[in-house]
Amino acid sequence: MARTCTLKGNPLTLEGPELKVGDKAPDVTLKKSLVDSIKISDTNGKTRILSVVPSLDTPVCAEQTRRFNQEAAKLTSVGFYTISFDLPTAQARFCGAEGVDTERFPALSDHVDGAFGRAYGTLVTELRVECRAVFVLDKDGTICYAEYVPEIAEHPNYDAVLACAKELG
User: Fold this and answer.
1) Angle (deg, nearest 10), helices 88-98 and 59-74
2) What is the pLDDT of residues 120-156, one digit of tens each?
3) Considering the chain, what is the average pLDDT of its residues?
């Protein structure tokens, strides 16, 4: 049976597996800029929150990114990353306009080949965007929290995400 999410009630297909707590985080490469890349494993060594959004240029995604940016300033022992299909130049423009601290909360792009979306089960086939999801990884890359938000236009459970990250340190 195909996995799905909805956008304003309309069903959409999710490509890839549904990752669960205890799974090893897939090691994929994302773009930090048009020329620089980073692998998920490059961020090992600390607790990480991977905030996955369809597009930074939409209201809920912008609000989610601003919220985690505020939390990143308070939780300095946790690494924060936002991931979308937006081009790195669009991500940089958004972060600059919104005052997002990209040193503490870098935006990473999956636009090249959708490897993150396919590996993490967040690729919305019909729209070629990520669904809304949040993953908390421990310092060794094990998933300790996984949330696939069923309705793309709704927010994740911020309190649960932050509680998990704080517990891990």
Assistant:
1) 70
2) 999 999 999 999 999 999 999 999 999 999 999 999 9
3) 96
Q: In what order do the strands lie in the sheet with 3-7?
A: 3-7, 10-15, 123-124, 129-130
Q: Which of 5, 61, 95, 164 is catalytic?
A: 61
Joined tokens for residue 100: 């997002």
* Residues 144 and 24 sit within 8 Å (Cβ to Cβ): no
Name 7's bridge partners.
Answer: 10
pTM of the model: 0.97
Kindly report, residue by residue over 3-32, the tens digit of the pLDDT: 999 999 999 999 999 999 999 999 999 999
131 labelled catalytic: no
Identify each DSSP E strand in the chain by its residue range. Answer: 3-7, 10-15, 29-31, 37-39, 47-52, 78-84, 107-109, 123-124, 129-130, 133-137, 143-148
Superfamily per CATH, domain 3-168: Glutaredoxin (3.40.30.10)
